[in-house]
Design brief:
With about 260 residues, this protein is α+β, with helices and mostly antiparallel strands. It folds into two domains: about 70 residues, Arc Repressor Mutant, subunit A, CATH 1.10.10.10; about 170 residues, Beta-Lactamase (2-Layer Sandwich). It contains nine helices and seven strands. Helix 5 packs antiparallel against helix 9.
Length: about 260
């Protein structure tokens, strides 16, 4: 679950009822339980309006309330999200590539997608090995670009203005709450741009190594990355170059399938 009361992105059309309802529903991708007061503050909406709009969503099954009165996603929202997620074209394109890497390495392989407007990322698809100890991650939840190979592999290829905006948030580590060092991260991003891949250790999950290679769309804009996660006790430094090569081939293939010549 995300930290309480995040600041959600505003819209250029905040005045419309439809826009406000859609922003409320989008908030459940950030956190799965909201009080009316928290949600109103996060969306910069009047409490009365937020309560009224939640009331419109509830009879249709888009939101529900738990025993404590907090609002949560409803069955209909889960049904639509699950249907769309299962049929997300990029997931279908990436699935055989992820499975091939998983079979070759016997480690967890993930598809990471950039949510550019929100300046966030999310894990969209996963191929898991049979190991009882492996990386687990909640799919389709927006997360920081500033921490770990998954986010940094994307952040490195954003515009300088977008990078500045992400750094200005000063997001703490999702693992242990340590402060973000903007100078250290800028140095890391420069290395990622030069080498074409990102490495991290114990930034999102304890004792886990991450290796991520970005892929790009037809216009050359970064779209996401292909990522491998490895527990520290199974990590073999001598295999890293081979892992990177596997991820690079998959990322190049995804870039090609997305129309980049």
């Amino acid at each position: 679950m995300a930290s309480p009361d995040p600041t959600l992105p505003a819209s250029s059309a905040d005045g419309g009822t439809v826009n406000r309802v859609l922003r409320i529903l989008s908030a459940f991708a950030i956190k799965d339980r909201w009080s009316v007061n928290e949600l109103a503050r996060a969306l910069s909406l009047p409490r009365a309006s937020t309560h009224r709009l939640l009331g419109l969503c509830k009879p249709l099954g888009y939101v529900e309330q738990d025993a404590a009165g907090l609002y949560m996603p409803g069955v209909e929202l889960y049904r639509i999200a699950g249907r769309l997620s299962a049929n997300m074209p990029i997931n279908q394109l990436a699935d055989p590539l992820l499975q091939a890497i998983r079979d070759e390495t016997d480690e967890t392989t993930l598809l990471v997608i950039l949510a550019r407007q929100e300046q966030k990322m999310f894990f969209s698809h996963i191929a898991s090995p049979v190991h009882p100890l492996r990386y687990t991650s909640e799919l389709n939840r927006l997360e920081s670009l500033a921490w770990g190979a998954a986010g940094q592999s994307l952040l490195a290829f954003l515009s300088p203005e977008e990078i500045d905006s992400v750094l200005a948030r000063e997001e703490a580590s999702p693992l242990d709450g340590r402060a973000l060092s903007a100078d250290a991260l800028r140095t890391t991003l420069e290395s990622i741009r030069k080498q074409g891949y990102a490495l991290s250790y114990s930034e999102r999950a304890p004792d886990m190594h991450g290796i991520a290679v970005p892929f790009f769309d037809a216009s050359g804009a970064v779209r996401g990355s292909v990522m491998l996660t490895i527990p520290h006790f199974r990590f073999d430094e001598s295999r890293v170059d081979g892992f990177i090569a596997l991820l690079q081939r998959a990322a190049n293939e995804l870039t090609h399938r997305l129309g980049r010549v």
